[in-house]
Amino acid sequence: QRLRERLNKGDSILTRDITELLPSSGKPDEGTLEELETRLLMADVGVDATRKIMDGLYERLDRKALADGAQLMAGLEAEIESLLGPVEVPLVPEHSGEGPFVILVVGVNGAGKTTTIGKLARRFRDEGRSVMLAAGDTFRAAAVEQLQAWGERNEVPVIAHATGADSAAVAHDAVQSALARGTDVLMIDTAGRLHTQAGLMDELRKVKRVIQKAMPSAPHETLLVLDGSTGQNAIAQAREFNSAVDLSGLVVTKLDGSARGGVILAVARELGVPVRFIGIGEGAEDLDVFRAKDFTRALVE
Ligand code: GDP
Fold first, then answer.
1. 48-84 pLDDT, tens digit each
2. Does 149 carry a binding-site annotation?
3. The whole model's pTM is what?
4. How remote is the C-alpha of 64 from its chain's centroid?
5. 209 is in an annotated binding site
6. CA Rg value for the chain
7. Which of 181, 194, 238, 264 lies at 20 to 30 Å from 272 by C-alpha?
8. Which residue among 105, 109, 115, 187 is best mutated to probe the pocket of ligand 1, counting the most ligand atoms within 8 A of its Cβ?
9. Does residue 105 line the site of ligand 1, with CB under 6 A?
Protein backbone atom coordinates (compact mmCIF):
# COMPACT_ATOMS: atom_id res chain seq x y z
CA GLN A 1 0.00 0.00 0.00
CA ARG A 2 2.74 2.40 1.03
CA LEU A 3 4.71 1.38 -2.05
CA ARG A 4 1.75 1.99 -4.33
CA GLU A 5 1.12 5.46 -2.91
CA ARG A 6 4.72 6.50 -3.25
CA LEU A 7 5.47 4.91 -6.59
CA ASN A 8 2.42 6.29 -8.31
CA LYS A 9 2.74 9.69 -6.72
CA GLY A 10 4.56 10.84 -9.83
CA ASP A 11 2.71 9.19 -12.65
CA SER A 12 1.22 5.81 -13.25
CA ILE A 13 2.28 6.32 -16.81
CA LEU A 14 1.96 2.67 -17.72
CA THR A 15 -1.72 2.35 -17.20
CA ARG A 16 -3.14 5.81 -16.81
CA ASP A 17 -6.49 5.75 -18.59
CA ILE A 18 -5.71 2.57 -20.42
CA THR A 19 -9.28 2.67 -21.70
CA GLU A 20 -8.16 5.64 -23.80
CA LEU A 21 -5.98 3.26 -25.77
CA LEU A 22 -8.86 0.98 -26.64
CA PRO A 23 -10.72 1.30 -29.94
CA SER A 24 -14.45 2.06 -29.81
CA SER A 25 -15.20 -1.66 -29.82
CA GLY A 26 -13.47 -1.88 -26.40
CA LYS A 27 -11.43 -4.80 -27.73
CA PRO A 28 -7.64 -4.28 -27.69
CA ASP A 29 -6.09 -4.51 -31.17
CA GLU A 30 -2.66 -4.00 -32.69
CA GLY A 31 -3.03 -0.23 -32.49
CA THR A 32 -3.69 -0.50 -28.76
CA LEU A 33 -0.55 -2.53 -28.28
CA GLU A 34 1.50 -0.07 -30.31
CA GLU A 35 0.41 2.76 -28.05
CA LEU A 36 1.08 0.69 -24.96
CA GLU A 37 4.57 0.04 -26.30
CA THR A 38 5.18 3.78 -26.54
CA ARG A 39 4.09 4.19 -22.95
CA LEU A 40 6.43 1.48 -21.76
CA LEU A 41 9.34 3.15 -23.51
CA MET A 42 8.38 6.51 -22.00
CA ALA A 43 8.27 4.93 -18.55
CA ASP A 44 11.97 3.98 -18.84
CA VAL A 45 11.28 0.28 -19.31
CA GLY A 46 13.98 0.19 -21.99
CA VAL A 47 13.95 -1.29 -25.48
CA ASP A 48 14.77 -4.90 -24.57
CA ALA A 49 12.36 -5.27 -21.69
CA THR A 50 9.65 -3.52 -23.68
CA ARG A 51 10.14 -5.94 -26.57
CA LYS A 52 9.91 -8.91 -24.19
CA ILE A 53 6.66 -7.62 -22.69
CA MET A 54 5.19 -6.78 -26.10
CA ASP A 55 6.06 -10.22 -27.52
CA GLY A 56 4.07 -11.74 -24.70
CA LEU A 57 1.13 -9.42 -25.28
CA TYR A 58 1.05 -10.03 -29.06
CA GLU A 59 1.08 -13.72 -28.38
CA ARG A 60 -1.93 -13.25 -26.08
CA LEU A 61 -3.64 -11.17 -28.76
CA ASP A 62 -3.11 -13.96 -31.31
CA ARG A 63 -4.56 -16.44 -28.86
CA LYS A 64 -7.56 -14.11 -28.55
CA ALA A 65 -6.79 -13.83 -24.83
CA LEU A 66 -7.13 -10.03 -24.83
CA ALA A 67 -10.87 -9.56 -25.23
CA ASP A 68 -11.18 -6.36 -23.20
CA GLY A 69 -9.33 -3.71 -21.19
CA ALA A 70 -9.31 -5.82 -18.04
CA GLN A 71 -7.63 -8.71 -19.84
CA LEU A 72 -5.11 -6.31 -21.32
CA MET A 73 -4.24 -5.04 -17.83
CA ALA A 74 -4.01 -8.57 -16.47
CA GLY A 75 -1.81 -9.60 -19.40
CA LEU A 76 0.47 -6.63 -18.90
CA GLU A 77 0.74 -7.38 -15.20
CA ALA A 78 1.58 -11.03 -15.86
CA GLU A 79 4.26 -10.13 -18.42
CA ILE A 80 5.89 -7.60 -16.08
CA GLU A 81 5.81 -10.01 -13.18
CA SER A 82 7.44 -12.76 -15.20
CA LEU A 83 10.22 -10.34 -16.10
CA LEU A 84 10.75 -9.28 -12.48
CA GLY A 85 10.30 -12.65 -10.79
CA PRO A 86 13.83 -13.91 -11.49
CA VAL A 87 15.46 -10.81 -9.93
CA GLU A 88 13.55 -11.14 -6.68
CA VAL A 89 16.25 -12.73 -4.55
CA PRO A 90 16.28 -11.20 -1.06
CA LEU A 91 19.62 -10.59 0.60
CA VAL A 92 20.27 -12.58 3.74
CA PRO A 93 23.54 -11.33 5.24
CA GLU A 94 24.87 -14.69 6.36
CA HIS A 95 27.50 -17.05 5.00
CA SER A 96 28.63 -20.50 5.94
CA GLY A 97 32.14 -19.57 7.07
CA GLU A 98 33.57 -17.57 9.93
CA GLY A 99 33.77 -13.81 10.07
CA PRO A 100 31.61 -10.89 8.98
CA PHE A 101 29.27 -10.82 6.00
CA VAL A 102 30.99 -8.13 3.95
CA ILE A 103 28.95 -5.85 1.69
CA LEU A 104 30.84 -3.61 -0.73
CA VAL A 105 28.60 -0.73 -1.75
CA VAL A 106 29.25 1.07 -5.05
CA GLY A 107 27.50 3.72 -7.12
CA VAL A 108 27.90 7.25 -8.44
CA ASN A 109 27.72 10.29 -6.17
CA GLY A 110 24.19 11.20 -5.21
CA ALA A 111 22.74 7.78 -6.03
CA GLY A 112 21.92 7.24 -2.37
CA LYS A 113 24.78 4.99 -1.22
CA THR A 114 25.34 6.54 2.17
CA THR A 115 21.62 6.83 2.88
CA THR A 116 21.07 3.20 1.85
CA ILE A 117 23.93 2.03 4.07
CA GLY A 118 22.33 3.95 6.96
CA LYS A 119 18.94 2.38 6.31
CA LEU A 120 20.48 -1.10 6.04
CA ALA A 121 22.48 -0.57 9.24
CA ARG A 122 19.24 0.05 11.02
CA ARG A 123 17.48 -2.90 9.41
CA PHE A 124 20.26 -5.37 10.21
CA ARG A 125 20.62 -4.05 13.74
CA ASP A 126 16.87 -4.42 14.25
CA GLU A 127 17.26 -8.04 13.13
CA GLY A 128 19.66 -8.48 16.02
CA ARG A 129 22.89 -8.41 14.03
CA SER A 130 25.98 -6.44 14.96
CA VAL A 131 26.96 -3.98 12.25
CA MET A 132 30.07 -2.02 11.33
CA LEU A 133 30.46 0.65 8.65
CA ALA A 134 33.57 1.69 6.73
CA ALA A 135 33.90 5.18 5.26
CA GLY A 136 35.59 4.21 2.01
CA ASP A 137 34.63 7.40 0.18
CA THR A 138 37.78 9.20 1.27
CA PHE A 139 37.54 11.55 -1.70
CA ARG A 140 34.70 13.59 -0.20
CA ALA A 141 34.95 14.86 3.40
CA ALA A 142 31.17 15.22 3.62
CA ALA A 143 30.71 11.54 2.78
CA VAL A 144 32.72 10.48 5.83
CA GLU A 145 30.79 12.85 8.11
CA GLN A 146 27.47 11.70 6.72
CA LEU A 147 28.33 8.05 7.33
CA GLN A 148 29.51 8.88 10.85
CA ALA A 149 26.19 10.61 11.53
CA TRP A 150 24.27 7.48 10.43
CA GLY A 151 26.62 5.41 12.60
CA GLU A 152 25.90 7.54 15.66
CA ARG A 153 22.18 7.52 15.06
CA ASN A 154 22.15 3.72 14.84
CA GLU A 155 24.87 3.17 17.43
CA VAL A 156 27.12 1.24 15.09
CA PRO A 157 30.89 1.77 14.85
CA VAL A 158 32.31 3.51 11.77
CA ILE A 159 35.86 2.94 10.57
CA ALA A 160 37.22 6.10 8.96
CA HIS A 161 40.57 7.57 7.95
CA ALA A 162 41.38 11.18 7.07
CA THR A 163 40.03 12.65 3.83
CA GLY A 164 42.31 11.80 0.94
CA ALA A 165 43.50 8.56 2.57
CA ASP A 166 43.69 5.36 0.53
CA SER A 167 40.21 3.87 0.44
CA ALA A 168 41.60 0.35 0.03
CA ALA A 169 43.44 0.85 3.33
CA VAL A 170 40.16 1.83 5.01
CA ALA A 171 38.52 -1.32 3.64
CA HIS A 172 41.43 -3.44 4.81
CA ASP A 173 41.33 -2.01 8.34
CA ALA A 174 37.57 -2.41 8.50
CA VAL A 175 37.72 -6.10 7.56
CA GLN A 176 40.46 -6.71 10.15
CA SER A 177 38.50 -4.86 12.77
CA ALA A 178 35.22 -6.66 12.00
CA LEU A 179 37.05 -10.01 12.13
CA ALA A 180 38.63 -9.10 15.49
CA ARG A 181 35.36 -7.90 17.00
CA GLY A 182 33.21 -10.71 15.68
CA THR A 183 30.92 -8.29 13.82
CA ASP A 184 28.07 -9.89 11.86
CA VAL A 185 27.76 -7.44 8.97
CA LEU A 186 30.34 -5.01 7.60
CA MET A 187 29.23 -2.47 4.99
CA ILE A 188 31.93 -0.64 3.06
CA ASP A 189 31.07 2.67 1.39
CA THR A 190 33.12 3.74 -1.66
CA ALA A 191 33.74 6.86 -3.72
CA GLY A 192 31.20 7.70 -6.41
CA ARG A 193 33.43 10.10 -8.26
CA LEU A 194 37.14 10.52 -8.73
CA HIS A 195 39.10 12.63 -11.18
CA THR A 196 38.06 10.28 -13.96
CA GLN A 197 35.53 7.51 -14.39
CA ALA A 198 38.27 5.05 -15.37
CA GLY A 199 40.13 6.03 -12.20
CA LEU A 200 37.03 5.25 -10.16
CA MET A 201 36.60 1.80 -11.68
CA ASP A 202 40.29 1.03 -11.09
CA GLU A 203 39.96 2.10 -7.48
CA LEU A 204 36.87 -0.05 -6.93
CA ARG A 205 38.66 -3.07 -8.40
CA LYS A 206 41.56 -2.40 -6.05
CA VAL A 207 39.29 -2.06 -3.00
CA LYS A 208 37.69 -5.37 -3.91
CA ARG A 209 41.08 -7.09 -4.27
CA VAL A 210 42.24 -5.77 -0.89
CA ILE A 211 39.04 -6.99 0.78
CA GLN A 212 39.57 -10.43 -0.78
CA LYS A 213 43.12 -10.49 0.48
CA ALA A 214 42.06 -9.64 4.03
CA MET A 215 39.25 -12.22 3.93
CA PRO A 216 39.23 -14.68 1.01
CA SER A 217 35.47 -15.31 0.97
CA ALA A 218 34.68 -11.57 0.94
CA PRO A 219 33.03 -9.44 -0.30
CA HIS A 220 29.95 -11.62 0.04
CA GLU A 221 27.85 -9.01 -1.70
CA THR A 222 28.81 -6.31 -4.18
CA LEU A 223 25.86 -3.98 -4.16
CA LEU A 224 25.23 -1.24 -6.70
CA VAL A 225 23.03 1.66 -5.60
CA LEU A 226 21.22 3.23 -8.56
CA ASP A 227 19.15 6.39 -8.64
CA GLY A 228 15.87 5.25 -10.20
CA SER A 229 15.03 8.77 -11.28
CA THR A 230 17.93 8.88 -13.74
CA GLY A 231 16.15 6.63 -16.21
CA GLN A 232 18.18 5.14 -19.02
CA ASN A 233 21.35 6.60 -17.57
CA ALA A 234 20.95 4.15 -14.69
CA ILE A 235 21.22 1.27 -17.17
CA ALA A 236 24.49 2.57 -18.59
CA GLN A 237 25.87 2.93 -15.06
CA ALA A 238 24.78 -0.54 -14.06
CA ARG A 239 26.53 -2.01 -17.08
CA GLU A 240 29.77 -0.18 -16.35
CA PHE A 241 29.91 -1.08 -12.65
CA ASN A 242 28.99 -4.67 -13.43
CA SER A 243 31.87 -5.08 -15.83
CA ALA A 244 34.30 -3.50 -13.35
CA VAL A 245 33.38 -5.22 -10.10
CA ASP A 246 30.91 -8.00 -10.96
CA LEU A 247 27.75 -7.01 -9.10
CA SER A 248 25.74 -9.46 -7.02
CA GLY A 249 22.86 -7.15 -6.10
CA LEU A 250 21.16 -3.85 -6.78
CA VAL A 251 19.34 -1.24 -4.76
CA VAL A 252 17.21 1.17 -6.76
CA THR A 253 16.54 4.40 -4.87
CA LYS A 254 14.24 7.41 -5.19
CA LEU A 255 11.31 5.44 -6.52
CA ASP A 256 9.11 7.83 -4.58
CA GLY A 257 8.50 11.17 -6.22
CA SER A 258 8.92 11.56 -9.92
CA ALA A 259 10.84 8.38 -10.71
CA ARG A 260 9.30 6.06 -13.23
CA GLY A 261 9.77 2.63 -11.73
CA GLY A 262 10.07 1.13 -15.20
CA VAL A 263 13.82 1.42 -14.90
CA ILE A 264 13.80 -1.70 -12.70
CA LEU A 265 12.40 -3.70 -15.60
CA ALA A 266 15.16 -2.42 -17.83
CA VAL A 267 17.96 -3.36 -15.42
CA ALA A 268 16.35 -6.71 -14.64
CA ARG A 269 16.30 -7.56 -18.33
CA GLU A 270 19.73 -6.12 -19.06
CA LEU A 271 21.76 -7.50 -16.15
CA GLY A 272 19.70 -10.19 -14.50
CA VAL A 273 21.31 -9.17 -11.19
CA PRO A 274 19.03 -9.55 -8.13
CA VAL A 275 17.24 -6.39 -7.02
CA ARG A 276 17.67 -6.59 -3.25
CA PHE A 277 15.97 -3.44 -1.99
CA ILE A 278 14.17 -0.36 -3.23
CA GLY A 279 14.41 3.13 -1.72
CA ILE A 280 11.12 4.96 -1.42
CA GLY A 281 12.02 7.98 0.70
CA GLU A 282 14.73 9.68 2.70
CA GLY A 283 13.87 8.32 6.15
CA ALA A 284 15.52 5.38 7.91
CA GLU A 285 12.44 3.20 7.34
CA ASP A 286 12.07 4.00 3.67
CA LEU A 287 13.77 0.93 2.27
CA ASP A 288 11.71 -2.07 1.18
CA VAL A 289 12.78 -5.58 0.29
CA PHE A 290 12.10 -5.92 -3.44
CA ARG A 291 9.08 -8.13 -4.15
CA ALA A 292 8.22 -8.70 -7.80
CA LYS A 293 4.50 -9.14 -7.22
CA ASP A 294 4.07 -6.10 -4.97
CA PHE A 295 6.19 -3.97 -7.22
CA THR A 296 4.27 -5.00 -10.33
CA ARG A 297 0.97 -4.22 -8.64
CA ALA A 298 2.20 -0.82 -7.54
CA LEU A 299 3.46 -0.10 -11.03
CA VAL A 300 0.42 -1.18 -12.93
CA GLU A 301 -2.59 -0.42 -10.76
P1 GDP B 1 25.64 9.05 -2.16
O2 GDP B 1 26.41 10.20 -2.72
O3 GDP B 1 25.47 7.96 -3.18
O4 GDP B 1 26.17 8.54 -0.87
O5 GDP B 1 24.14 9.60 -1.94
P6 GDP B 1 23.43 10.05 -0.59
O7 GDP B 1 23.17 8.88 0.28
O8 GDP B 1 24.17 11.19 0.00
O9 GDP B 1 22.01 10.53 -1.16
C10 GDP B 1 21.87 11.64 -2.01
C11 GDP B 1 20.51 12.29 -1.75
O12 GDP B 1 19.46 11.40 -2.14
C13 GDP B 1 20.25 12.60 -0.29
O14 GDP B 1 19.60 13.85 -0.21
C15 GDP B 1 19.32 11.49 0.18
O16 GDP B 1 18.48 11.90 1.24
C17 GDP B 1 18.52 11.23 -1.09
N18 GDP B 1 17.95 9.86 -1.14
C19 GDP B 1 18.59 8.68 -1.01
N20 GDP B 1 17.73 7.65 -1.17
C21 GDP B 1 16.51 8.19 -1.42
C22 GDP B 1 15.19 7.65 -1.69
O23 GDP B 1 14.95 6.44 -1.74
N24 GDP B 1 14.18 8.56 -1.90
C25 GDP B 1 14.41 9.92 -1.87
N26 GDP B 1 13.37 10.71 -2.10
N27 GDP B 1 15.62 10.44 -1.63
C28 GDP B 1 16.67 9.60 -1.40
1. 999 999 999 999 999 999 999 999 999 999 999 999 9
2. no
3. 0.94
4. 36
5. no
6. 21
7. 194
8. 115
9. no
